[in-house]
Amino acid sequence: RATVLLSRCLLKMVKENIVVPEEILSFCCNGLQGSTSPLRAQEPGEREEVPGTMASPSPARNPTEVQMSQLVLPCHTNHRGELSTGQLLKWIDTAACLSAERHAGCPCVTASMDDIYFEHTISVGQVVNIKAKVNRAFNSSMEVGIQVSYEDLCSGKHCSICKAYATFVAQGPSGSKVKLKPLTPQTEEEKIEYSIAAERRRMRLVHKDTLKDLLSRSPRETELETRVGSAAVPAEKTRVESVELVLPPHANHQGNTFGGQIMAWMENVATIAASRLCHAHPTLRAIEMFHFRGPSQVGDRLVLKAIVNNAFKNRWVLAARGPHPSLPVALHTLTPSFLPPSMEVGVCAEAYGQEMSISRRHINSAFMTFVVLDQEGRPCTLPMVAPEPGDGERRYREASARKKIRLDRKYVVSCKQTEVPLSVPWDQSNKVYLSYNNVSALKTLVAKANWALASEKGKVRMYTLEEDKFLSFRIEMSVHIAAGQAFSLLSDLRRRHEWDRHYASAELVQQVDDDDMIYHVVSQKLSSENKPQDFVILASRRKPCSKGDPYVVAFRSVTLPTHPASAGFTRGETLCSGFCIWPESEETSKVAYYNQATPGYLNYVTTNVAGLSSDFCATFKACEKFLLKNKEDLIVRL
């Protein structure tokens, strides 16, 4: 009734040409929009009610989390009625950027994107759901985790599309870097992502070195296959060059081109190049990890170039997988896995500011993997590629090396912990990813929330965790030693026998780098075959990335051709174990040992599930004596 009276009064005043004061007009407009209560001052700390929303308690949510839902329309799709991957990349980048800016409180730009594997295509009429949130903030950069799924509105089906990690850099008004506030994870999932983000950052930094190392070790004469006959397509015929003008809709509020827009343009020319090889419509399956070298602004011209670097035949590969990863390696089976024919397309983006400008700025380079599917979704064979001499042959060889690295990374890094075999073969191409998996598995175990106190004897506390058919242990105590000193002493397995009576010896068989070593360990305990057990163990050490992080020493089994299983020993395995050391003060630290117990790994773990507290307590007491006895000698040596 009040709304009707207000509207009549306002209409009469307008007809009689009476000037309506702004306050009355604002009040009337608010009333017409549904406000029937008088205006009042907002109390301090009171949250403003949003019209049309219900006042109901909502669960706590990460303040950096951004959710985006997009209905796939015909204008977003290709000729098959499937969502264009370029459009999806734009949405992914936008959601991730909004999440980063929520945390930074200032504009952010895309610095890099990790590997993206697209598991399914999305059809017109379906809904794309994107969730992005900041996993960890470093000095001026932050990692944003993105999860993409689709929803079929008719059937209610939900399906995962991809998971991605992007790095964003916060920028000040003049383009200078901004120091970010730290992020405090709350849930178990957030703590795991926060902890592993530092390890992913380390892996990004060594990505180029990994490729160079693999290329230097590959025999040059065996890399190029014989390309005789008319079936081989000259790579030059697949070359594409296109130019785009950066307009205001393509840029953010600072005038910098959206990273997702650049990725969409790159995907477009890469698709054209792939189509020129196969004379069909290819499907993008993966994008290699890439970095943005510099920004581009409104008014820039972007030159995009693409060419097919290599085409790979279909083949079967054998992966060491057993019915369950807790089985000994002897029970693992080599499961054949089919790799469909695919091609790698290299794309680069360069920018210049004027039509006649000669110098161009390198913005980005990326490598995209395409497949061709028939109407039933089965992979089609691809023509061979004949690379041009010089740079073409170099790109051809690098594509083969990247494929090897990509398979290793997807196999070791992307697998769930329960899907990774106990002993993965170690070589130069996968050393970075095995090290990553080793440390991230331990950090994941540390971040679990359901540890239960099993016993406490003096300063030694033992916790257990039952999850996913694994029984895990955590033994911890405070020791009067600096965390760095404890880290140095406990990370050398050659000295383990001095305090752990279950170890007979440990030989350093390979110094991988400053942070990773491979040991051959012999145990004192006899196996069920009445033979001593031996292990080939990768030890990975990590110093804290920032304040609050622990020192980490992670152990896992690997397979080395130089140290095969021998008749004199029973080969044992460990999936995940190691130390985490937290500084409590300058002279005191908390030392915790973790072990994800599996059958066959150190009998004292599995035979003391009910009453092993005394054994663990004695071992850890011996560890404390070892640390206190050797800390002075360590100071002198340092």
TrEMBL record:
List the record's Gene Ontology CC terms alphabetically.
cytosol
Top-level lineage group? Eukaryota
Q: Where is this region: Disordered?
A: 38-63
- Decide whether keyword Plastid is in the record: no
Tell me which residues make up the START domain. Answer: 451-621
- Name the pathway it acts in: Lipid metabolism; fatty acid metabolism
UniProtKB keywords: Fatty acid metabolism, Hydrolase, Lipid metabolism, Repeat, Serine esterase
Query: What residue stretches are annotated with the HotDog ACOT-type domain?
Result: 62-174, 236-376
Catalysed reaction equations from the record: butanoyl-CoA + H2O = butanoate + CoA + H(+)
Extract the Gene3D superfamilies matched here: 3.30.530.20, Hotdog Thioesterase
Q: What's a GO biological-process term for it?
A: fatty acid metabolic process
Entry-linked InterPro entries: Cytosol_ACT, HOTDOG_ACOT, HotDog_dom_sf, START-like_dom_sf, START_lipid-bd_dom, Thioestr_dom
The GO terms this record gives for MF are: carboxylic ester hydrolase activity; lipid binding; long-chain fatty acyl-CoA hydrolase activity
Coiled-coil intervals, chain numbering: none
Please give the CDD domains that the UniProt record associates with this protein.
BFIT_BACH
What PANTHER family does the record tag this protein with?
ACYL COENZYME A THIOESTER HYDROLASE, ACYL-COENZYME A THIOESTERASE 11
Task: Report what the protein is called.
Answer: ACO11 thioesterase
Q: Which organism is it from?
A: Mesembrinibis cayennensis
